[in-house]
Amino acid sequence: LQNILALNPRKQTHATLHSTAAKKQVKKQWKRNSDKNCSNCEKLENNFDDIKHTTLSERGALREAMRCLKCADAPCQKSCPTNLDIKSFITSIANKNYYGAAKMILSDNPLGLTCGMVCPTSDLCVGGCNLYATEEGPINIGGLQQFATEVFKTMNIPQIRNPSLPPQEDMPKSYQAKIALLGAGPASLSCASFLARLGYSNITIFEKQEYLGGLSMSEIPQFRLPYDVVNFEAELMKDLGVKVIFSKGLAVDGMTLRTLKEDGYEAVFIGIGLPEPNRDSIFQGLRMEQGFYTSKDFLPLVAMASKPGMCDCHSPLPSIRGTVIVLGAGDTAFDCATSALRCGARRVFVAFRKGFTNIRAVPEEMELAKEEKCEFLPFLSPRKVVLKGEQIVAMEFVRTEQDDDGNWKEDEDQVVRLKADVVISAFGSILSDNKVREAMAPIKFNRWGLPEVDPETMQTSEPWVFAGGDIGGLANTTVESVNDGKQASWYMHRYIQSLYGVAVSTVPELPLFYTPIDLVDISVEMAGLKFPNPFGLASATPATSSSMIRRAFEAGWGFAVTKTFSLDK
After folding, report:
1. DSSP assignment, residue 131?
2. CA angle, residues 366, 368, 373, in degrees to nearest 5
3. Torsional sign, CA 367, 216, 462, 82
4. What stretch(es) of the chain map to CATH 1.10.1060.10?
5. How far is CA 386 from CA 82, 229, 290, 413, 447, in A?
6. Which residues, including other chains, have CB under 8 Å from residue 202's CB and lie 6 or more apart?
7. Mean per-residue pLDDT for 249-258?
8. What is residue 303's DSSP assignment?
9. Separation between Cα atoms, residue 335 and residue 371, nearest integer Å
10. What's the pLDDT tens digit per position in 521-537?
């Protein structure tokens, strides 16, 4: 009782005094954030729980949605590669219409949940938010998108064809055209989804691996993008009848563009990504057993061990011990760094050639690595791998400097040697497999060794072949790859219809996302009239002109009650 009474407020009569030594001693009993020396840091080994700060609970999502200004000319929407109607889906969340929000998101982005989790929003929609300069900061758009689509995911509702389309058996012959998509990454999943929504019934994805999702599955860690998220979006696509054939792809079992043409495929989309790592010459001949990995080696091993259901195999995490040096400054490099900690690394250094202001990774990725005590080493260019016997024991670097013209140069007089047990190279990816390049004949390649692609139509030099995602050379993020597939789907549709002499609108008219919920009849009868739903507008400003009532009907309102019209002059 005395201890409880001691907590009651008292009038202060003197300044309070406690020794610094005493305060330091008791600080650990009250401090909630981790100490700088990390003595009480959470152990990360084998911990693949969600680490994103953007993830929201329902309470948090509702509070965040209420902050949105619903800007008339919303800059967030202009910043989104897939052109999501962001203010509308946020309004739906604020009204607790989570299905409506998810429907809006998935209509424009079939991978809406993935993008809600991994989009670099600070460089896209959030970067354009009009609340950016306010004390509360911009709207957490990615978190709201993730919340709405996760709620929809728990509903277990399938996707259905556009209800306005005739039955499949009554569709014109052109919609039975054989379409092939090579690779099952974000670009291909998006393209296949929109083609299926348009009514095409003979769509096949060829994937050389045993899983769907491409880099989303194999290279984005479980703690950022779980397996079940990618699988959920793939299942929505398959709901529309898209077929998937695994262990088959370009240059596998003799598959080429020419053989696909001979097999009757009238249009092909190439979305195979960039499968090979960009490997520096100093690493030639080094193997994983010696302690060297590329990001293309390391991240798939981590994914297969940490993403249950990804494949039939059950492999252990890579055994990483001691000090790890990750080379690179992109998102992939920081994924490697944070994954290495979960594989048992004691310390992780991220070394890169330029300074902090030149880091290509988005701030969100870098901050997560910083919070997990990864160390950053700028202005270092790798020069030599030091081996003892067959094992890596150190890396030698030279310092880099920027001259007056802005060019980066190596200073051979400044050499840095760092001890290391493991080195992970994350210098990007390329298309270097000559068999795959030969399988793409007769399409033309540009000076970067990638297919020549029209940036508007995503067509290659062969009108029947389209390409997007990493291999298209335009997309740098998942959401941009999704938009490549979306864009290609419309122009593939136009191309196929032209083969059958059918004219198609020059303005893209891609169908929306539909589920059985949209078929539920909620019409009502009043005063002998039938209305599509019981939700109406009553007089006042929203119903005082024909144009405003027209807008209301377009937005889904069932009726409008008015008594006075403004005079249209």
Report:
1. T
2. 95
3. negative
4. 58-155
5. 46, 41, 11, 19, 35
6. 176, 177, 178, 179
7. 93
8. H
9. 13
10. 999 998 899 999 999 88
Residue 561 β-bridge partners: 538
| Mean pLDDT across 463-482 | 96
CATH class of 58-155: mainly alpha
Secondary structure of residue 246 in the 3-state scheme: strand
pLDDT digits (tens, 9 = 90+) for 454-469: 999 999 999 999 999 9
3-state SS, 469-503, equals HHHHCCCCCHHHHHHHHHHHHHHHHHHHHHHCCCC
Q: What is the 3-state secondary structure (H, E, C) of 487-544?
A: HHHHHHHHHHHHHCCCCCCCCCCCCCCECHHHHCCCCEEECCEEECCCCEEECCHHHC
Could you report the per-residue pLDDT of 107-123, keeping only the tens digit for each? 999 999 999 999 999 99
Q: Can you name the CATH fold of 278-429?
A: FAD/NAD(P)-binding domain (3.50.50)
325 neighbors 424 (Cβ within 8 angstroms): yes
Report the 10 Å Cβ neighbour count for 171: 15
Whole-structure pTM value:
0.91
Yes or no: domain 168-275+431-500 corresponds to CATH 3.50.50.60? yes
Which of 340, 301, 305, 298 lies closest to 323 in space, CA to CA? 340
Asked if 207 contacts 249 with a C-beta cutoff of 8 angstroms, the reply is yes
Residues of the chain with pLDDT > 70: what percent?
96
**The two three-digit tokens of residue 221, written as one number:** 């860690």
pLDDT band, very low/low/confident/very high, at 565 (cuts 50, 70, 90)? low
User: In angstroms, rounded to a whole number, what is the distance separating the alpha carbons of residues 105 and 146?
Assistant: 10
- Helix/strand/coil for 68: coil
Task: Give the model's confidence band at 37: pLDDT under 50 very low, under 70 low, under 90 confident, else very high.
Answer: low
Length in residues, the chain: 569
Distance separating alpha carbons of residues 497 and 193, to the nearest angstrom: 18
pLDDT of amino acid 43: 74
Residue ranges, comma separated, of all CATH 3.50.50.60 domains in the chain are 168-275+431-500, 278-429
Give how far the C-alpha of residue 191 lies from the chain's centroid of Cα atoms, to the nearest Å: 15
DSSP 8-state secondary structure symbol assigned to residue 128 = G
Q: Is the dihedral of CA 288, 290, 294, 299 positive or negative?
A: positive
Encoded amino acid at 48, one letter: F
The CA distance from 252 to 471, in Å, is 18
The angle subtended at Cα 104 by Cα 103 and Cα 107, nearest 5°, is 80
- DSSP structure string for 205-229: EEESSSSSSTHHHHTS-TTTS-HHH
Q: Which residue has the tokens 């001693």?
A: 25
